[in-house]
Design a protein that fits this description.
With 450 residues, the chain is an alpha/beta fold. It has 2 domains: 145 residues, Rossmann fold (3-Layer(aba) Sandwich), CATH 3.40.50; 290 residues, L-fucose Isomerase, Chain A, domain 2 (3-Layer(aba) Sandwich). Helix content is 37%, strand content 22%. The protein is built from 14 helices and 18 strands. It has a 6-stranded antiparallel β-barrel. Strands 2-1-3-4-5 form a 5-stranded parallel β-sheet, with helices on both faces. Strands 7-6-8-9 form a 4-stranded parallel β-sheet. Helix 2 packs parallel to helix 3, helix 5 packs across helix 14 and helix 9 crosses helix 11. The protein is elongated and about 85 Å long.
Length: 450
């Protein structure tokens, strides 16, 4: 994953202790570089409004994830206003402490960010801040979180998602609100007819399927035992969806997976979506949601971008109150990277339609972040939770696992039902709650923490 890019803009006034301020700037820059950030912007401190305006112009053609104003000494707010007014990147104000000597106030850095914060607040501009030494580890983590949220917001502005068909009748939770996705995130939607996917899949030459099958056999040990006609159907669907995504420059798909893939193609779309979500053949992971659940795909994309790893859209299907756990399940579209390495993955048949290809494996153990872009109130909000996938046998066929949440499962179920939340959630391995909360604040999304 590319390093997070920070526009590092140190401010100082020449009437204060310039050598000490320059030492602070040098130490802050070095700490950020050692922490793995890419820095853009002037190496020297900005000392007046003209210099700040020139820096803002120079940075206007450079994309970055965070605007960090390092207040090396006191300065009035005019430079901060000039640096922030033409960028949408999140803003971080950093002041440094100095010894209480009873003598001259050498930096007065805190007063500088106080003035800057007031000016930004008057202009309805959000920001975060730190009052800490340049080497402070907690501040570096604070910066990393905000920069990750900034990158996520920036990346979504160029995102294109494909919706294949309409969501099935009765699946109101999969409704597409295209204007809201464009307004809040900048996401563009490409609509794709099921008939186009079917036509391309049916015309896929057998020679194209052979290498796909060969790679798939490195994950699954039983392809030869499955009904070969529907198996090839799923492989051809994978090829068709991948081709369509490349042509339209799509970053994810929401697919009406039933009933037509079964009734018209005679195969399951689940296996194809698993392979696309995983990027199993060396391609970029392409998050896929079943039942044309576009908000599920958006949620997976959020998680995938933060984790730099595939995400999975799933159902919550059963609760064990005695063991304080929940079963997560879907027909068989989890990415391979989520398979428990202690258990051999198999190719399977759809539990209801009895045709291949679905993936059969338990989800691997480890900490996970649970999220859902929800429309249950009529307005979009972000639902968040955290938990641990347990090392246990599959609770059900397909791709499934046992989850223990950080809160009691009974409380989670109460929120799920009383808030009327969607039946799909998305998960990714790792803890990204803070980044998601900060991101939600940046784009103005309410958050429901479960």
């Amino acid at each position: 994953m590319e390093s997070l890019r920070i526009a590092f803009l140190p401010l100082l006034r020449t009437t204060f202790d310039v050598p000490l301020a320059e030492t602070m700037i040098s130490e802050a820059r070095q700490g950020l570089l050692e922490a793995g950030f890419e820095l853009v912007g002037p190496a020297q401190g900005l000392t007046d409004l003209a210099a700040a305006q020139a820096a803002a112009v120079e940075l206007s053609s450079t994309p970055f994830d965070l605007l960090l104003i390092f207040q090396a000494s006191f300065a009035d707010s005019s430079m901060t206003v000039a640096l922030t007014e033409k960028t949408e990147a999140p803003v971080f104000l950093w002041a440094v402490p100095e010894p209480w000597t009873g003598e001259r106030l050498r930096l007065n850095s805190l007063c500088g960010i106080n003035l800057a914060g007031h000016a930004l607040t008057l202009r309805r501009r959000k920001y975060d801040y730190a009052y800490a030494a340049p080497e402070d580890a907690a501040t570096l983590q604070q910066i990393r979180t905000l920069a990750a949220a900034g990158r996520l917001r920036r990346s979504l502005k160029s995102t294109r998602l494909g919706v294949v068909g309409e969501h099935p009748t009765g699946m109101d939770s999969c409704h597409l609100d295209e204007p809201a996705l464009a307004r809040i995130f900048g996401i563009q939607i490409q609509r794709i007819e099921l008939s186009e996917v079917f036509q391309r899949a049916r015309s896929t030459p057998a020679a194209r399927l052979a290498p796909i099958r060969s790679r798939l056999e490195t994950h699954l040990d039983n392809l030869a035992t499955l009904d070969q006609t529907p198996l090839n159907g799923t492989l051809s669907v994978y090829s068709a969806l991948k081709e369509i995504a490349a042509e339209h420059k799509l970053d994810g798909l929401a697919v009406r997976c039933w009933p037509e893939f079964f009734t018209e193609m005679g195969c399951a779309a689940c296996g194809a979506m698993s392979m696309l979500s995983d990027g199993f053949d060396g391609a970029t992971s392409l998050p896929c949601s079943c039942e044309a659940d576009i908000n599920g795909t958006v949620t997976q994309l959020l998680l995938q971008t933060l984790a730099d790893a595939p995400a999975f859209g799933t159902d919550m299907v059963a609760v064990d109150f005695d063991k304080d756990s929940m079963a997560l399940w879907h027909c068989g579209l989890a990415p391979f990277s989520m398979a428990d390495p202690a258990v051999q993955a198999h190719g399977g048949i759809h539990s209801n339609r009895r045709v291949p290809l679905v993936m059969e494996f338990p989800l691997k153990p480890g900490p996970v972040t649970i999220a859902r872009l929800s429309q249950a109130t009529g307005e979009l909000r972000l639902v968040l939770a955290q938990g641990e996938m347990l090392s246990s046998p599959k609770p059900f066929s397909g791709t499934s696992g046992t989850l223990r949440l950080s809160s009691p499962v009974r409380d989670f179920l109460d929120v799920l039902m009383r808030e009327g939340l969607e039946h799909h959630v998305s998960l990714v391995y790792g803890n990204y709650l803070k980044e998601l909360q900060v991101f939600a604040s940046l784009v103005g999304l309410p958050v429901l923490n479960c």
